[in-house]
Amino acid sequence: MRKFFFIAALTIATNIFAQETSVLLKEAYNLELKFNEPDALAKYKQVLVNEPSNYKALSRAAELSCSIGARNTNAKDKRLLYETALAFANRALVVDSNSANSFYLLSLASGKMTEVETENKKKVAFVRDIKVYADKALQINPNHALANFIEGKWHYEMVTLGWTKKLAVKTLYGGLPDPSIEKCIDYLEKCKKNDPYFVLNYLTLAKAYKENNNAVKMLEVLNQLVKLPKRNFDDAAYIDEGKKMLADEQ
Fold it and tell me: Which residues contact 146 (CB under 8 A, 6 or more apart)?
């Protein structure tokens, strides 16, 4: 009889937690629609208190920690947010190591860590991790839009980096491919095909076409960019940057 009551109590508790999780996830989603990322992140963290292995919460907590951190002007807070994002990404990989999204999250967080890491060897290691994890994501799902974006952005940033940093990466990790603006454009175009409303991809693609001296394609992408809907907090700023770039080039 005691065993029966214990099982019944456990079932009730599990159902309550499941209902609470569902409510919290819905509330977090609604906050994201209102571009209230800090409160949405707090909701996802609440979910993880109840369900530490909730993949949706881990994924969005990692991404939001990155986007909020990018806007934070306090160096210590920015680093903490990026380190937290990396921790969430690692937890997501433990939950699902066969998901392209898990490796994308690690690639994303590694990229953010390059902005705050001061030790050169560690920074270069994060530069390597961006490419390695994005490669793994695309091996699982070649059409993962965000992983294609990360790959394209890696090539763009490596092409436009100073030779000292390029040499450091090549010296420590000679197995990495040479960066290429053509490969950059290929990846970004594939991202565009798989996610035609991803604003930052358009802006990066326009810059890549400019780097490649292709003014026609650059203007074409910019004209598409300025008509896109705003899907998250940062899109307004990216669209404004695109409008300025378009005005400067015309």
Answer: 101, 104, 108, 191, 195, 198
Of the candidate CATH numbers 2.60.40, 1.25.40, 1.20.1440, 3.40.50, the domain formed by 27-96 belongs to: 1.25.40
Residue count of the chain, please give it. 250
Per DSSP, 230 falls in state P
Give residue-wise pLDDT tens across range 149-188: 999 999 999 898 765 566 666 666 666 777 899 999 999 9
The structure tokens listed for 241 are 């940057």
DSSP character at residue 145 = H
Domain assignments of the chain as residue spans, ordered by start: 27-96, 99-193, 196-250
* Whole-angstrom distance, CA of residue 72 vs CA of residue 189: 30
- Per residue in 47-62, pLDDT (tens digit) is 999 999 999 999 999 9
Residues 177, 132 contacting (CB under 8 angstroms): no
